[in-house]
Amino acid sequence: GLFDQSRKKPLPAFPHRIALVTSPAGAAVRDMLRILRARYPLTEVKLLPVRVQGEEAPEEIAAAIAYANRFHVADLIITGRGGGSMEDLWAFNEEQVAWAIFNAETPIITATGHEIDTTVADMVADKRESNPSTAVMHALPVVKETVSEFEQRYLYIKALMDNRMEKYRRDLD
Question: Coil, strand, or helix at residue 83?
Answer without folding.
Answer: coil
